[in-house]
Amino acid sequence: MRRLLMMGVMVMDTVDGRPAGNAASIRATAQAMARAQSAASVILVEGLTDQIALETAAALCGRDLDAEQVVIVPIGGAHAISRTLSVLITPSSRPALPAAKTRLAGLCDVQEEQIFRRGLEAAGLGSPRTRAEMEQLGFHVCIDDLEDELIRAVGVSGVTALFMSQRDLRSFHSFQKQPAWRGQDTRAQMHRFVRSSSRRNLRYARLLVEAAVAGNALPRPLDAVLNAV
Is omega for the bond preceding 95 within 30 degrees of 0, making it cis? Predict the structure, then answer.
């Protein structure tokens, strides 16, 4: 068993490939929420891969989130947005953040956009009816999701090169031959391949961001949410 320390978040990574995502996500959420008590800015994201991607992007762009007191909180799924916001901004909650002093922002997938909108409204932060109105509140949307944004940014040839560098290309070619995926769009195959393993998904969250930043192609939602804090 190896341990990968990602920007202060300990991610368990098993050599046999068994998913450790649930335990890692719970731990990451608890750690981030504890740090959020003294944060100047908090970015709410759906899960651990989003956190790794944003922290990687920030570091590569010269940001020191710790020094800036910016905390990225993986909330454990979009449906946790209302509960998380209530903890962060309700005066009677402990720990709670003084809303006037703490900048809130967020990132979600397009399928969860409506859930985030309802969460923002329920928390009294606004009533965004359009994506533009959400962005004015600091909340941005990935189309269709984080992995899709990154794969489009890096491109098929770039992702293929990453697979080769990580010794995953043979496995990917085998995946492409599976009946359900044979003949499908290559980007869609790459998306499914990356997401088919918890360990692989965590690893490529970092690798794809590194490749995107190197190509000056960081997806707009990631760039925008970092610029919002």
Answer: yes
What is the reported pLDDT for 26?
87
Rounded to the nearest angstrom, the gap between the alpha carbon of residue 135 and the centroid of all alpha carbons in its chain is 17
How far CA 215 is from CA of 3, 207, 218, in Å, comes to 29, 12, 8
Instruction: Report how far apart, in Å, the C-alpha atoms of 104 and of each of 22, 74, 228 are.
Output: 25, 13, 9
pLDDT of residue 37: 85
CA atoms within 13 A on the CB side of 195: 14
Residue 219 has pLDDT above 90, yes or no: yes
Q: pLDDT, tens digit, for every residue of 120-142? A: 999 999 999 999 999 999 999 99
Predicted TM-score (pTM) of the model is: 0.87
Q: Tokens for 104, please give them.
A: 């809130």
Integer Cα distance of 111 and 43 in angstroms: 19
Residue bearing tokens 């918890």: 198
168's tokens: 């995953």
Q: Which residues of 22-50 are buried (b: 16+ CB within 10 A; e: fewer)?
A: eebbebbbebbbebbeebebbbbbbbbbb
Asked whether the CA dihedral 50, 55, 60, 65 is positive or negative, the reply is: positive
Closest CA to 202 of 16, 24, 1, 8: 24
Residues in the chain: 229
Both tokens assigned to 143: 């189309």
Place of tokens 């944004």: 149
